[in-house]
Write a structure and sequence with these properties.
- By secondary structure, the protein is mainly alpha-helical.
- It has a domain at 49-171.
- It is 71% helix and 4% strand.
- The chain has 6 helices and 2 strands, in the order ααααααββ.
- It has helices spanning 2-41, 49-58, 62-85, 89-113, 124-144, 150-171, and strands at residues 188-191, 194-197.
- Strands 1-2 form a two-stranded antiparallel sheet.
- Strand 1 (188-191) and strand 2 (194-197) form a beta hairpin.
- Helix 3 (62-85) runs parallel beside helix 5, helix 4 (89-113) packs parallel to helix 6 and helix 5 packs antiparallel against helix 6 (150-171).
């Protein structure tokens, strides 16, 4: 009887030790999860324009490249606005020229990887939307800068407007009410008395 009681007590002690060690492990795990959550919740500094540009330049997929324009373009707009506020219109102009070049590169990458924008509009829509924002930014810069510095920005505005029009035509090739271009009719020329079609 005494042996059975001793065995029961030792099994009870073993169970209590096991429960205590599991509870300690659970506490350690929850502390680690909390620490991991705190480090994940700590905001990391935003990427610089240069870092975003480098990432954009490395990207080869047209859709991802077009989507990266959103973040890169917003960072470029912020840099351009800061330069405009301080009266540094040369820097503002350089930033907007680079933005235009990036939009053009994204469009070329899209056309290369997904030529049918009407069927595969992913990337095209985002690029068209952001190009519209870019046009507004350029117009604001043009209004703020002195007259002698405006011509280069007017070229950027013209280029962005043309890119925007191209994007709209790619996305919506069949527009209601728009007539397709007239095909020239082949002319006929008589040769030896018989009509002959010209190519």
């Amino acid at each position: 009887m005494a042996g059975a009681t001793a065995q029961y007590c030792s099994e009870k002690d073993a169970r209590e030790k096991k429960v205590a060690s599991l509870a300690a492990a659970a506490i350690v795990a929850s502390v680690l999860l909390c620490c991991a959550g705190l480090t994940a919740a700590t905001p990391r500094p935003p990427d610089t324009v240069e870092q975003l540009q480098e990432k954009f330049d490395r990207e080869t997929d047209g859709v991802r490249k077009a989507k990266q324009i959103q973040k890169l373009g917003d960072a470029q707009f912020a840099k351009e606005r800061a330069a405009t506020k301080t009266g540094d219109f040369v820097t503002a102009g350089v930033v907007m020229e680079k933005y235009r070049d990036n939009v053009r590169a994204a469009l070329e990458a899209l056309k290369k990887t997904h030529p049918d924008a009407e069927k595969h509009s992913n990337g095209y829509k985002q690029l068209e939307f952001h190009t519209g924002q870019g046009l507004r930014e350029v117009r604001d810069v043009i209004l703020a800068m002195p007259e002698p510095l405006r011509p280069p920005m007017q070229i950027v505005e013209k280029d962005l407007r043309e890119i925007d029009q191209e994007l709209l035509k790619l996305l919506f090739p069949r527009r209601p009410g728009e007539q397709p271009p007239m095909q020239p009719r082949p002319s006929t020329v008589e040769k030896d008395g018989k009509p002959e079609k010209q190519p």
